[in-house]
Design brief:
The protein has 192 residues and is mainly alpha-helical. The protein has helices spanning 2-68, 74-108, 117-120, 132-140, 143-166; strands spanning 171-177, 185-191. The longest helix is centred in the first third of the chain and has 67 residues, at 2-68. The relative contact order is 0.15.
Length: 192
């Protein structure tokens, strides 16, 4: 009865470990997908910021030309130059944020380095289409997922031990004793 209870408990623990593994896997996939979308969003923001920066550069050139021709005050040149410098700072911040997000994504999948751009799928946000298998593969590498798989394996092994305990242990023995001048003796033993 105790062995049966141990087996049932082992199977229940293995089922619970499998459910925890599935929950953790879903959370990891969600986190990885969210971080990959963050990278894609930041990349699209960077593309737009660079386009706006190019427009500000044209404004600075125009304001400088108009000032040189005496058609505009120097304040306009200074304002346009300041706005261009602000967008340069914004671009640097976006580049830094992208690198941080790629490093965080690498951490989510158990790496010491950033996840490569090719692994995130290079499409901008409006046409982002990363196959779920890519996320599942990235998440499979996550340390927590590895730990959950190991726990499930351990619980299954515990269940197998409990199952083995259900089987009776048999012992069979034979003794033979030859005695000179007397009858020989033989005995059989059977133990459970």
């Amino acid at each position: 009865a105790k062995s049966i209870a141990m087996r049932v408990a082992g199977n229940a623990e293995a089922d619970a470990a499998a459910a925890r593994r599935d929950r953790v896997a879903a959370e990891i996939v969600r986190d990885v997908r969210s971080k990959a979308l963050d990278v894609a969003y930041l990349r699209e923001s960077l593309r737009l910021a660079r386009a706006i920066h190019d427009l500000h550069r044209v404004m600075v050139e125009s304001a400088s030309a108009m000032y040189a021709a005496g058609m505009e005050k120097q304040a306009m040149v200074l304002r346009a130059t300041a706005e261009e410098a602000m967008f340069e700072m914004h671009i640097r911040e976006l580049e830094r944020d992208i690198e941080i997000a790629r490093l965080e994504l690498g951490r989510l999948v158990g790496r010491d380095a950033a996840v490569g751009e090719d692994e995130i799928a290079g499409a901008p946000v409006k046409s982002l289409s990363v196959a779920p298998t890519n996320y599942a593969e990235l998440a499979r590498l996550h340390p927590m997922a590895k730990e959950m798989r190991a726990m499930e394996k351990m619980k299954k092994a515990d269940s197998a031990v409990a199952k083995a305990d259900l089987l009776p242990d048999f012992a069979v023995g034979v003794d033979y004793m030859a005695r000179p001048g007397r009858d020989s003796m033989m005995s059989f033993r059977l133990g459970l």
